Amino acid sequence: MTQNTSAVKPLTLGIVGVGLIGASIGLAHKKAKTFDKVLGVGRSEANLNEAIKLGAIDQVVSLEQCAKESDVIVVCVPVAQTFSILHAIEPHLKQNALITDAGSTKTDVIMAAKTALGDKVAQFIPAHPIAGGAQHGASAAKADLYQGKEVIICPLQENAPAAVEAINKFWLGMGANTHRMSALQHDAVFAAISHLPHVLSFALMLQVANAEDANVKLGHAGAGFRDFTRIAASSPEMWRDISLANKTALLKEMDQYLNLTKQLRDMIAKEDGDALLKAFTRASAERQKWEGR
Ligand SMILES: NC(=O)c1ccc[n+]([C@@H]2O[C@H](COP(=O)([O-])OP(=O)(O)OC[C@H]3O[C@@H](n4cnc5c(N)ncnc54)[C@H](O)[C@@H]3O)[C@@H](O)[C@H]2O)c1
Ligand SMILES: O=C(O)C(=O)C[C@]1(C(=O)O)C=C[C@@H](O)C=C1
Predict the structure, then answer these.
(1) Does domain 186-291 have CATH number 1.10.565.10?
(2) Pocket flag, ligand 1, residue 49 (CB < 6 Å)
(3) CA dihedral 108, 112, 117, 120 (to 10 degrees)
(4) Can you tell me the distance from the alpha carbon of 106 to that of 128, in angstroms, rounded to the nearest whole number?
(5) Are the CB atoms for 58 and 66 separated by under 8 Å?
(6) Which of 44, 60, 65, 76 maximizes ligand 1 atoms within 8 Å of its Cβ, making it the mutation to test the pocket?
(7) What contacts 105, CB < 8 A, 6 or more positions away?
(8) Could you give the residue range(s) of every CATH 1.10.3660.10 domain in the chain?
């Protein structure tokens, strides 16, 4: 597969899924004036209108038109939608167009891309920005969302070095720092530090909301509960897709967490203050060390 350098300085950007992540990409590139035109594809008319109003996209188009016109396409939809999007755009892609994505999982996205794109998978350079928030939709978008944040790129064997470099520049152009990783390592790492915390946050919110005295509990909840459950307000569809896509790695992390929670439960049941103090001291020190990095 050859990529000419016209892909390095493209004219038209196509954003598929103009929510928090996609609209923030639109705003960032509009600010940086990287593209002459930014096209948006979505499934909610109200959200697309909001994206236009905010200046994140110039025009709403169909998937087909997006594929026909775009030099770079970025897919920012819940990960289970990836296959149908790529399958629909494949016949219409420009020869030198490059595609990247923002999906929070990578092994499933790459498998979907290989099936949907066939030989054209060389044009797909998988990525994941480690930036976001619990709000969703274009109205939550920010031009500086990626400023100083990390973006993981998981290049494929099929990708030409120039194509990977062009997508690297695409993310750097929004102020992000890029880092390369294999998809397998990516999914194992983010199961532990992103996917597990979201599942735990949803679970705690459910536990308190399900209580008979939920109103009393929620009425008195302070900063600890607020911090722990901030991410429980995240998009349910997005997190359903992530949890199922990264099932193996996530289940492993959940089992380890359940085991650790059981150990702490036993210490409390046995009133083993020394063991509790040792565990909490280690966790507290590690948290402070991490914050100071
Ligand atoms: N929110 C975060 O913190 C975060 C961070 C990094 C990566 N991601 C990933 O980015 C992607 C988008 O997340 P988001 O936070 O922007 O979600 P979002 O809900 O704000 O936006 C997703 C948008 O995609 C649209 N969409 C869904 N299916 C579609 C389809 N088939 N065709 C066209 N549009 C479609 C929705 O209408 C919505 O506007 C997800 O894959 C998510 O895993 C999210
Ligand atoms: O800021 C938040 O609320 C986030 O949850 C962002 C966050 C995370 O850190 O887990 C969520 C999902 C992503 O794929 C990447 C980033």
Answers:
(1) no
(2) no
(3) 0
(4) 8
(5) no
(6) 76
(7) 79, 187, 190, 241, 242, 245, 246
(8) 186-291
Strand-pair partners of 124: 99
Ramachandran angles phi, psi of 71, nearest 5°: -90, -35
The response to whether residue 140 sits with its C-beta less than 6 Å from ligand 2 reads no
pLDDT tens, residue by residue, 168-223:
999 999 999 999 999 999 999 999 999 999 999 999 999 999 999 999 999 999 99
Residue 288 banded pLDDT, cuts 50, 70, 90: very high
Mean pLDDT of the chain: 96
Q: Does domain 8-181 have CATH number 4.10.520.10?
A: no
How far away, in angstroms, is 100 Cα from ligand 1 center? 14
Mutation choice for ligand 1 from 18, 21, 128, CB with most ligand atoms inside 8 A: 21
> Ligand 2, atom 14: nearest CA belongs to which residue?
104
Residue 68 near residue 94, CB atoms below 8 Å: yes
Q: At what angle do helices 273-291 and 247-269 cross, to 10 degrees?
A: 140
Ligand 1 neighbourhood includes 137 CB (under 6 angstroms): yes
Give distance in angstroms: CA of 64 to centre of ligand 2: 30
ipTM: 0.99
Which amino acid is present at 147? Q
Q: Which ligand number lies closest to the CA of residue 48?
A: 1
